[in-house]
Specification:
The structure holds 3 protein chains of 3 kinds. Chain A is an alpha/beta fold. Chain A has 11 helices and 8 strands. The N and C termini of chain B lie far apart (42 Å). Chain B has one domain. In chain B, 46% of the residues lie in helices and 9% in strands. The chains are: A alpha/beta, B mainly alpha, C alpha/beta. Chains in contact: A-C, B-C. The interface between A and C is medium-sized, with 37 and 33 residues.
Chain lengths: 308, 114, 222
């Protein structure tokens, strides 16, 4: 065991794992965090807490993670390289692990030009691959990046993200391999809609044996409406929403679109359960935390197994 | 063709409208002229291919400068006409003179006189 | 070369407001090549400033001068006899120019007439793009000769990130994804596997992060 987190235990026991996601509020509204966490309690192994997602300022991820721990949930602390240099990243992971955080997801982060403060200076002292390497070093060698000893080393289950749908496609599995080489213990993918492309991605991943070195969780985000599908297809860079997804949603009554979106997510999860190399699913029900249970339950994944 | 055009128009001949320089245009205003226009060949008919298109862009540049300085950008214009169109030349001269008369004297000349 | 952009006339006018004698000072270096601060542009800016002054009924004293370079003391020295005649010197060299002139002439007020934008080159006449961030430790040969530090919006050394789409960066479809280009170029050279290497964290000491930089060449120093 690297960190002994619930997520790590579940995956190493060979169970098909389920993670959720929670975006902290744009303020210090603790109740909001507790409220959203309530929907996810008991239905997922751990919950990703986003870090200034889409470069919009929100309650610090580590703080929201601590609130989840106090509520009896396990967080995955997301960390982006956009807002902090290596000093702050290392300091924050020491602080986070001191508070009981065990899972971390290392990300580059969306560029701030999209976000709430586009005029800000960005950092990118490290990139996501280097961040993984830094945390692996802190955990395994008990040293800072400068090779000086730590007074207390973090125990971490290291996560990375992978977007099978970004370009150039032929390099995507290589980049995943780099993240694994740098230290990723688990990987969560971008939301998947193009199943054909994902199958191809997983085939290449399995061919390289990467699924044996790292747990891969397939990303699922239910479509709430045709509007959301069209928006994601058009405006979210690196998102691949095939026309067939939009058409299927268009094929049902407007009031039924959300239910159809959930049905589609469930069908996807059923396929992931059988897909070689896929160790679990990451259910990102964005601002829809209260519907996550329907999806997970619908996919026959409740109750969650208990591991020790 | 003994065509009449306003006597206040002073013609400066150039081998091609592309030879017009931003500085020629600005210096005219500096010296107090009320308006300037560049008469180039029809677009697509430039003997040097793009001289008249370049002239238009220079005119547009000077329009922006004038605007920044609080001077009516209409005081400078680009016209395209063929060298075989004498009547058109006279017509443009009258048309532009009318436009400038409506705008009144250049604010530079006015300020200098005061 | 160093590429710049003219400041808006309105901004320059407000900077020099109330200053009677003005010198517009150009540079025959990079800013001449990128058509923003050479003799030609000195003439245009000076003329525009004179028009503004005449219009306002002010003395139109705006004179013109262009130095071989504003980043070398020997050329800045050419101003020695005249600098103090002016109430304002508007330098349209890169950011180095106004500082060299300011440092040399204590009592003279110097104003920047251009914004220095980046180190880059001309893609075509009238179009320039950034190529270098002067990080002080060039690594481009490892990335197909293309710089991920200057040209990736996130300076990723292990890109491309998940926002790369159809060859473009996530920040704008107008911005090419340099990591897409790096992958294509390395593929074309049959060296794609070199990109499998995990690049360790970069030492930024040689970049601006290590403090203002200075270089001494003992073999040249007198």
């Amino acid at each position: 065991m690297k960190a002994g987190s619930n997520l790590e235990k579940m995956l190493s026991a060979g169970h098909f794992a389920v993670t959720g996601e929670l975006g902290p509020p744009q303020g210090n509204n603790v109740e909001e965090v507790r409220h959203k966490a309530g929907f996810l309690k008991g239905i997922v192994e751990s919950v990703n807490i986003t870090d200034n997602q889409t470069a919009v300022v929100r309650m610090a991820s580590w703080a929201a993670c601590k609130i989840l721990i106090d509520e009896g949930l396990e967080p995955n602390y997301q960390m982006v390289c956009r807002d902090r240099n290596r000093l702050a990243l290392m300091a924050d992971i020491l602080g986070a692990t001191a508070l009981g955080i065990k899972n971390v997801l290392c990300l580059s982060g969306d560029h701030q030009r999209f976000g709430s403060h586009p005029e800000s200076k960005n950092v990118y002292d490290l990139d996501s691959v280097q961040l993984l390497a830094a945390f692996k070093k802190m955990r395994d060698e008990k040293k800072f990046l400068n090779d000086k000893d730590l007074d207390g080393a973090p125990e971490l289950f290291l996560g990375a993200a992978s977007n099978p749908f970004a370009d150039p496609f032929e390099f995507r599995v290589t980049r995943l391999a780099k993240k694994i080489a740098a230290g990723a213990d688990f990987v969560q993918t971008q939301c998947i809609y193009n199943m054909d492309k994902f199958r191809e991605f997983m085939k290449q991943t399995v061919d390289r044996g990467l699924h044996e070195k790292c747990y891969i969780l397939a990303g699922v985000t239910p479509m709430k409406s045709v509007g959301m599908a069209k928006y994601m297809a058009k405006f979210v860079p690196g998102m691949d929403v095939p026309e067939s997804v939009v058409k299927r949603l268009q094929g049902v009554d407007k009031k039924q679109q959300a239910a159809e979106g959930i049905k589609m997510a469930i069908e996807q999860i059923e396929e992931f359960k059988e897909m070689e190399g896929v160790a679990g699913v990451h259910v990102m029900a964005i601002e829809w935390e209260h519907r996550a249970k329907e999806i997970i339950e619908g996919a026959g994944l409740l109750p969650r197994p208990v591991v020790d | 063709m003994r065509l009449q055009y306003p006597t206040n128009v002073r013609v400066i001949q150039l081998p091609c409208s592309g030879r017009v320089d931003i500085l020629h245009l600005l210096r005219s205003f500096e010296d107090g002229v009320d308006g300037v226009y560049v008469a180039g060949c029809m677009e697509g008919d430039c003997h040097f291919l793009t001289g008249n298109l370049k002239a238009r862009r220079k005119v547009e540049y000077v329009q922006k400068v004038l605007e920044s300085l609080g001077i009516e950008p209409e005081r400078i214009a680009m016209y395209n006409m063929s060298s075989a169109e004498g009547p058109r030349f006279a017509e443009v001269a009258r048309e532009f003179t009318e436009r400038i008369k409506e705008l009144g004297p250049s604010p530079i000349a006015t300020a200098q006189a005061a | 070369m160093i590429v710049g952009d003219s400041k808006p006339l309105e901004e320059i006018l407000s900077m020099i407001e109330g200053r009677d004698k003005v010198l517009v000072l150009g540079c025959r270096g990079c800013v001449t090549v990128c058509n923003v601060g050479g003799e030609k542009e000195v003439g245009i800016l000076a003329s525009a400033l004179r028009i503004a002054r005449k219009k306002a009924g002010l003395p139109p004293t705006v004179e013109e001068m262009t130095l071989e370079r504003q980043c070398d003391p020997e050329y800045v020295e050419e101003l020695a006899d005249v600098a103090e005649n002016y109430d304002a010197i508007v330098s349209i060299a890169c950011g180095v120019g106004p500082q060299f002139v300011s440092e040399r002439f204590r009592d003279v007020a110097v104003f920047p007439g251009i914004n220095t934008t980046f180190i880059g080159g001309a893609l075509e006449h009238g179009v320039w793009a950034e190529r270098c961030q002067s990080c002080g430790n060039c690594l481009v040969h490892n990335f197909g000769g293309l710089c991920p530090i200057a040209r990736c919006s996130k300076s990723l050394m292990n890109g491309p990130c998940g926002g790369s789409a159809s060859g473009n960066c996530e920040i704008s479809p107008e911005v090419p994804c340099v990591w897409d280009q790096i992958v294509q170029k390395m593929s074309a050279m049959g060296r794609l596997e070199e990109l499998e290497q995990v690049w360790p964290n970069k030492n930024w000491l040689t970049a601006r992060d290590g403090g203002p930089r200075k270089r001494v060449r003992e073999d040249l120093k007198q």
